[in-house]
Amino acid sequence: MKDCAGGCQVGDERRAMVAGVGGAATAAFRRAAVTLRATVTRRATVTLCSAATVLAALMLAGCGIAIPADPDGVFNQIQGNVLRAGASVQAGLVERDSEGKNDGGGGGDATEDETNDEAGKSHDGDGGDTVGPLADLIEDFAGQHGAEVEWTFGSEESLVLALEAGELDVAVGGFSADTPWSGRVGATREYEDLSLSEGRHPVVLVPMGQNRLLFELEAMLDERSAP
Fold it and tell me: What are the two backbone dihedrals, phi and then psi, of residue 207, each rounded to the nearest 5 degrees?
């Protein structure tokens, strides 16, 4: 009777132990199943979002919409044609090569005010009339896209007005990231290889909304700034 009782007690303990282990295993399995379901759900969500993004891009491409947008076809018109560039004289960055400046003639140097007062006067894009690193930047950009540059000198305000009126494609000069014209025109990021006063760097202005032209200009800035 004693032995039976002892054996029964041992059996009960073993069954309890097995039951405990089984319960723990079941709980662990359930937790793993929940984690797996959550992981699969997250991955499915990410995959769905990625697929939606790709689908949206394909739909836009199918509708003839370019990313970034070129709403008025400005960039497309520039390629292989003419880039209309405005310049507000900034000493050492963009200047007009006035008559006699580099050939020893007696014409003398034009002042910034005198040159900028010639708003609306265009010059051939042969590199002979407009000089300086900002002019070189615009000439090189045009060259990359098979275009010639038609330069117009003017005050900052007159250039902004011309951009708004669709008479210019780009404008350079003393414009920086904190330009007061930022609410009326678009601007590239700063071209940090060149400097204005007080640690500021020049930007290139474009008509508002011309994101494709802006994108292409900044791509060139990135290439030039690469180590």
Answer: -60, 145
Beta-bridged to residue 96, according to DSSP, are 130
pLDDT tens by residue, 83-141:
999 999 999 999 998 654 544 444 444 444 444 444 333 444 444 489 999 999 999 99
Considering the domain architecture, whether residues 124 and 177 belong to the same structural domain is answered as yes
Q: Please give the sequence-ordered ranges of beta strands (E in DSSP) within the chain, or none if there are none.
A: 82-87, 95-96, 121-123, 130-131, 148-153, 170-172, 185-187, 205-207
CA–chain centroid gap for 29, Å, is 49
**Domain count within the chain:** 2
Q: Do 125 and 169 fall within a single domain? A: yes
CA 149 – CA 199 distance, rounded (Å): 29
- In the chain, % helix, strand, coil (3-state, to 5) comes to 50, 15, 35
Which residues are within 8 A (CB) of 110 and not within 5 positions of it... i.e. 6 or more apart? Answer: 96, 98
User: For 182-218, how does the pLDDT look when each residue is reduced to its tens digit (9 = 90+)?
Assistant: 999 999 999 999 998 878 999 999 999 999 999 999 9
